[in-house]
From TrEMBL:
One of its GO terms (biological process) is threonine biosynthetic process. The keyword Transferase applies. The lineage of its organism: Eukaryota, Fungi, Dikarya, Ascomycota, Saccharomycotina. InterPro entries: GHMP_kinase_C_dom, GHMP_kinase_C_sf, GHMP_kinase_N_dom, GHMP_knse_ATP-bd_CS, Homoserine_kinase, Ribosomal_Su5_D2-typ_SF, Ribsml_uS5_D2-typ_fold_subgr. Commits homoserine to the threonine biosynthesis pathway by catalyzing its O-phosphorylation. This is Homoserine kinase.
Length: 357
C-alpha cells in the first residue's frame, strides 16, 4: 500500500536585533515536502543507493544548485542521520520526495534551519520513530548548532531559546564535527556505523505573544551570504557595556512586540544591537546607513529594523506603509549596486507540521 504525507516547515528570521542566537520568528513562507512510499514501485522510481528519488519543483529556490543525491542534499542527508541513529540504514524501498522551496538560500531567512527541521521530520516519519517535537529539536541541534531559527521553524511563532548546560560527555558528543554526524556522500557505500546520538532535551524555549497588527517586511538582496561566513566575522569576546546594551533591549523587546497599540518609541530603540550587526556591515554594502536612516518619524508605521538572521536580508517590522518602507530600502541598496526583492510576511504560528494524505 502507498503511504503519502506532506511536511511543511516555515522560514524564519533570527536575532530580531539584540537577540543574537536567542530570538527567532517563524514566517509565512513554507518549505514543503511531498513524500510517497510505494514498495511496489521500488524498481520504477530510479532511486539512488539509499532508496530515495529526490526532486525539486522548477520554481524552487536552489532548483539548479542543490544536490539531488540523498546523502548529499541537506534535507535527505539529515533524514538519513536520524534513521541511522536508529539503526535504519536507508529510506524504505520506493521512497519519493518532491520538494517545493520558496525560501531563498543563504539570505538570512532560515533556509538551512527549515531544511534541517524538514529532514529530521522526514527521518522520523519514514522510520516511524514517533518522536516529540522536543526530541526532534535535539536532532536538529546536532546539525544547525544555534537554536534560534530551528526553534522558530519547529515550534512556530515568536520564540526565545537557549541550550541547556551540557555535561562534559554531552559537550563532546555535541561538538563532534558535522562530517561525523551527517552521512558523507559516499557513492553508495554505507559504512554501517551508528552516528553520535544527540543528548536529550538540549534546547529550551518559550513562545512569546506577538501583536498580530505587526507585519514583517523582508527586503532580500540578490546575493548569498553563508551563515558560516557571517558568523566568522564576529569577535570572540565583548565588552560588558555591549553585552548589557543588548540584554537591556532584549528584555524590553520581547514584551514590547506583544503590546497594543505597538509603541515605535519603545520597539525601534529596543531593536538596536551591538553584538552582531556592527561586525556584519563589512559583508553587506549599505547596512549601516539602512539600519540608521529609516526611522518611525520618517516612515510612519515603521516600528523597527534589523538584519534578518545572518543577513543579507533586512527585516523591518511595521503596521503600515509596507511598500514605501520596502522601496526606500531597495533604493538604498540599489545605490550600492545591490538589487533586491521584497516580501510582506506574517508570523507562522503553527511551526512545522506533517499531514498524512
Ligand atoms: N531546501 C533546501 N534543500 C537543500 N539544501 C538547502 C535547502 N535550504 C538550504 N539548503 C542548504 O543550506 C545553505 C544555506 O544555509 P545558510 O548559509 O545557513 O543560509 P540561510 O540563512 O538561508 O539559512 C544552502 O546553500 C544549501 O546548501
Ligand atoms: N543567530 C544566527 C542566525 C542565522 O540565521 P540564518 O537565517 O542566516 O541561517 C546568526 O546570526 O548567525
Amino acid at each position: 500500500m502507498t503511504r503519502s504525507f506532506k511536511i511543511t516547515v516555515p522560514a524564519s528570521s533570527a536575532n530580531i536585533g539584540p537577540g543574537y542566537d536567542v530570538l527567532g520568528i517563524g514566517l509565512s513562507l513554507f518549505l514543503e515536502l511531498e513524500v510517497s512510499i510505494d514498495p511496489k514501485q521500488a524498481h520504477e522510481t530510479n532511486a539512488d543507493a539509499n532508496n530515495c528519488k529526490l526532486s525539486y519543483t522548477p520554481e524552487s529556490e536552489g532548483y539548479d544548485s542543490v544536490p539531488l543525491q540523498s546523502d548529499a542534499n541537506l534535507i535527505t542527508r539529515t533524514a538519513l542521520y536520524v534513521l541511522r541513529c536508529n539503526n535504519i540504514r536507508s529510506f524504505p524501498c520506493g521512497t519519493k520526495v518532491r520538494v517545493h522551496n520558496p525560501i531563498p538560500l543563504g539570505r538570512g531567512l532560515g533556509s538551512s534551519g527549515a531544511a534541517v527541521v524538514a529532514g529530521v521530520m522526514l527521518g522520523c516519519e519514514v522510520g516511524k520513530l514517533n518522536y516529540s517535537k522536543q526530541r526532534m529539536l535535539d536532532y536538529c541541534l546536532m546539525i544547525e548548532r544555534h537554536p534560534d531559527n530551528i526553534t522558530a521553524a519547529m515550534m512556530g511563532g515568536f520564540c526565545g531559546s537557549f541550550l541547556r548546560d551540557l555535561t562534559p560527555q554531552e559537550v563532546e558528543r555535541r561538538e563532534i564535527p558535522l562530517s561525523e554526524v551527517l552521512p558523507e556522500p559516499s557513492g553508495g557505500e554505507d559504512t554501517g556505523l551508528i552516528p553520535p546520538l544527540p543528548p536529550t532535551d538540549i534546547g529550551r524555549h518559550v513562545k512569546y505573544q506577538w501583536n498580530p497588527k505587526i507585519k514583517c517586511i523582508a527586503i532580500i538582496p540578490a546575493f548569498e551570504l553563508s551563515t558560516a561566513d557571517s558568523r566568522g566575522v564576529l569577535p570572540k569576546a565583548y565588552t560588558t557595556q555591549d553585552v548589557v546594551f543588548n540584554l537591556q533591549r532584549l528584555a524590553v523587546l520581547t514584551t514590547a512586540l506583544t503590546m497594543d497599540p505597538p509603541n515605535p518609541d519603545l520597539i525601534y530603540p529596543a531593536m538596536q544591537d551591538r553584538v552582531h550587526q556592527p561586525y556584519r556591515k563589512t559583508l553587506i554594502p549599505g547596512l549601516t546607513e539602512i539600519l540608521s536612516n529609516l526611522t518611525p518619524s520618517t516612515y510612519p508605521g515603521l516600528l523597527g529594523i534589523c538584519l534578518s538572521g545572518a543577513g543579507p536580508t533586512i527585516l523591518a517590522v511595521a503596521t503600515d506603509n509596507f511598500e514605501d518602507i520596502a522601496l526606500e530600502i531597495i533604493n538604498r541598496f540599489a545605490k550600492k549596486n545591490v538589487q533586491c526583492a521584497w516580501k510582506l510576511l506574517e508570523p507562522a504560528y503553527e511551526g512545522a507540521t506533517v499531514e498524512e494524505s
